[in-house]
Design a protein that fits this description.
By secondary structure, the protein is of the alpha+beta class. The protein has two domains: about 5-185 and about 355-400, FAD/NAD(P)-binding domain; about 190-345, no CATH class. The protein is about 35% helix and about 25% strand. The protein has helices at about 10-20, 40, 55-60, 65-75, 80-85, 105-120, 175-180, 200-205, 240-255, 275-285, 290-295, 300-310, 325-335, 390-400; strands spanning about 5, 25-30, 50, 60, 90-95, 100, 125, 130-135, 140-145, 150, 155, 185-190, 195, 205-215, 225-235, 240, 260-265, 340, 340-345, 355-360, 375, 385. The strands form six sheets. It has a seven-stranded antiparallel beta sheet. Helix 12 (about 300-310) crosses helix 13 (about 325-335). The protein starts with a strand and ends with a helix. It binds flavin-adenine dinucleotide. Flavin-adenine dinucleotide binds next to helix 1, helix 2 and helix 14.
Amino acid sequence: MKKIGIIGGGASGMMAAIAASKKGASVMILEKQDRIGKKILATGNGKCNLSNLSFSAQRDYHSRDKEKLEKYFDRFCVQDTISFFEECGLMITDKNGYLYPRSGQAATVLNLFLEQLEKYQVKVQTECVVESVSHTKKGYLVKTNKEEYYFDELILSAGSSAGTKEKDKLGGMQLIKELQIKADPMLPALTAIRCSGEQWKAMAGVRCDGEITVILQDKQGKTQTFRERGELQLTEYGISGIPTFQLSRHVSKALQQHNKTEAYLDFIPELSWQEWKLVFEKQVKRSTGRNVLSFTEGMINKKVAQVLLKEAGIRNTELICYPMNDSAKKLMQLFKKYPIAIKETNPVFVSQVCAGGVYLSELDENLQVKAHQGLYVTGELADVDGRCGGYNLQWAWTSG
Ligand SMILES: Cc1cc2nc3c(=O)[nH]c(=O)nc-3n(C[C@H](O)[C@H](O)[C@H](O)COP(=O)(O)OP(=O)(O)OC[C@H]3O[C@@H](n4cnc5c(N)ncnc54)[C@H](O)[C@@H]3O)c2cc1C
């Protein structure tokens, strides 16, 4: 019987363990934490958004090699995920395409995995930190803080440190480096963006509809623009919320390469600039003589209103006058294009995933490392990161 070792008992490692043991292998998971699958419990705010019915590898994922990525999804995708979980006895619910366990509890998904691992007699070693991996004549030698193990084949499912509160350890990247497999550094993705300026403290706690635009410029002067709309969450250090998360991987990469970043918030994303100008001017006209703060508050959260007024050089006690003066015009502009100064992203350990990892070009159609027969890579350790919405777990299931 083939002996397979799996480094990391996260989503992709557990899925790989079940797949391998279903094919008759003897499987052992080596997990450094005190229990397996811990991260799953935190997913989807404890509800586990396990996949998404609206799916496009091109649109929903980032990777150096999206064509290859599509081929992996051709073999196991959303419907296969649904079938897998349903066969295990899970009822899945669909919220606008976002898939969750019907129980509304991520723990249900983890418990189901634990049940399957037991059913297929997968051995699990916890508090077992893999320190090195080498290819020997006897197979793969895995040295841990406890024992040494030999396996015929090895699956690297060590993920990333995203969401793990381990500031200094970048998951399995150390092992990848030692094995000389080509990979991009792991950078925070799906995370908040920290900005300079005192105004953030004044706006902390605000949640509002908005759009973020980020313009990135590399050393050759090439620019890329990214735009996301949705619920903005303003914090005491900058911006958070889903639109920010979706953009953050591009910001991480730009900052790592010391490229220029420029960013704006649009607090009235539902209107074009021309439409907004007409609306704003009409509002000013009909509000002549009113207090400027209550006028602005009529359109936006008070905390944001105060910041925009200050930036436009207008005192809260002033009265609206028509025709508009320069400060009123500046205020009108700030609503649609409020400049923010990006400082950094939140660090990896408070991010949801990492961008970077092993190039797909290093792997064959079964995610086997081309240069190391019998060595496989799954999950976040590969150069694949998805948007918010169940796409990262879908990749974990697919690769596992
Ligand atoms: C707060 C949060 C919420 C999220 N919500 C969602 C969501 O709702 N939907 C979604 O699709 N995605 C979500 N994600 C992302 C998703 O959880 C991950 O993409 C997915 O879990 C990655 O699976 P993985 O198997 O690659 O790695 P991981 O789940 O990170 O598992 C890797 C495992 O390897 C272990 N390990 C690492 N190094 C070693 C070593 N040297 N020796 C032994 N063991 C080791 C780790 O302890 C860990 O258990 C969320 C992530 C976070 C942090």
